[in-house]
Amino acid sequence: MAAGGVCAPADEVIVYEGAGPNVRGGPFDLAGRRVAARAFPYGSAAGSARGRFDPIERRFLLAAAEPSVAVGPHDPETWRDALSRNLPGAVAVGAGDPAEAIHGAFRAAAEGAARGGRGVFLLDPPCIGLPEEPSEAFVALFVMLPVHPTPEALSSSLARGFRAGVVVPLIPGWTCGASALADVLVRAETSGARFVAGVPGEEDGSARRAAVAVRELLEPDPPEDFFDRVHHGNWGAETEDARARLREACAERGLPFGVPRPVGLLEPAANAAAARRLEDRAEALFARDEHRASLLHAAARWIDESGRDLAPIVAEGNFRKIFPFVEEVAREAEAAFREGG
């Protein structure tokens, strides 16, 4: 079984074909964190995952009936070179594939991104695909669904010292319910997960149909009202309410809510800390003031792409001379730097 997905039929033949590095430029959003580029070691859909949830696309991906998987190179330097053509910032690598033990493309992509000085989000990494050494450059995320087994690689990641946690897809009528959230939280806490994040699923027609298909694969007899709640319910209100309840439940358990920000080996520490604080504030504001949240995200992106250590400029009192945003955002950005001081 591919991590984060549903098993393919045992008699399904998967063809793996060698290819160059598959990299897609962003920016993308991962639970409020900016992602500058994506690296796909095994194509945009892992070979045997018939229903993998992608936390950036925010939808379940249904693999083709007879999949052919393009496998990226096993050389980290090739991935580093390919990723260097994208904007500065964190990279998301994944998802993994059971063939990682043979091809090694996931680990190569992750290590190549880290060698390039980037922070790296590892999306459903297979055990064998984890980088050799844990560091602040890596954050591992595992999708967890009600009644579905806890990903084996989550325990392995934690045991090896990686910052690893759980992403919960928020789907009305399924994962948004109190019992479903409680199930996921108990298993996340038991596993020792370092964080939990709730990611609302996309609400377009194809995303809703995919959610229905995946639940029917996992639970052949879903509740009778599930189809109607997915297709005709108040998607935004239900997912936002579930996200708020999940945040509150995490606070009660002392479990961090949200995805940590990886820090690239060549990234100035003060820049990383300030950008993280701005992203955190933007995420907290999003439901109430989307415009201001967008400005804060843009400010974090500007810091990521500045290309220099901004802490000395802040200390000298010259930050606002170079920061190209309105005064209110400039104050918040400057405060984010000083908080880290």
SSE layout:
Layout: E1 15-18, E2 23-30, E3 33-39, E4 52-54, E5 59-61, E6 68-71, H1 76-83, E7 91-94, H2 100-103, H3 105-115, E8 120-123, E9 138-143, H4 152-159, E10 163-170, H5 178-191, E11 196-200, H6 205-218, H7 226-232, H8 235-253, H9 269-285, H10 290-304, H11 311-315, H12 319-322, H13 327-340
Parallel strand pairs: 1-6, 3-7, 7-8, 8-9, 9-10, 10-11
Antiparallel strand pairs: 2-3, 4-5
Structure description:
It is a single chain. This protein has 341 residues and is an alpha/beta fold. It has two domains: 15-253, TIM Barrel; 269-340. It is built from 13 helices and eleven strands. A seven-stranded mixed sheet has the order 2-3-7-8-9-10-11. It has a two-stranded parallel ribbon with strand order 1-6. β10, α5 (178-191) and β11 form a beta-alpha-beta unit. α9 (269-285) runs antiparallel to α10 (290-304) and α9 packs across α13 (327-340). Mean pLDDT is 89; it is low at 6-10.
Radius of gyration: 20 Å
- Total number of strands: 11
Give the mean pLDDT: 89
Q: Specify the number of helices.
A: 13
Features of the shown structure:
alpha/beta; TIM Barrel; seven-stranded mixed β-sheet; 13 helices
Short description:
With 341 residues, the protein is of the alpha/beta class. The chain has helices at residues 76-83, 100-103, 105-115, 152-159, 178-191, 205-218, 226-232, 235-253, 269-285, 290-304, 311-315, 319-322, 327-340, and strands spanning 15-18, 23-30, 33-39, 52-54, 59-61, 68-71, 91-94, 120-123, 138-143, 163-170, 196-200.
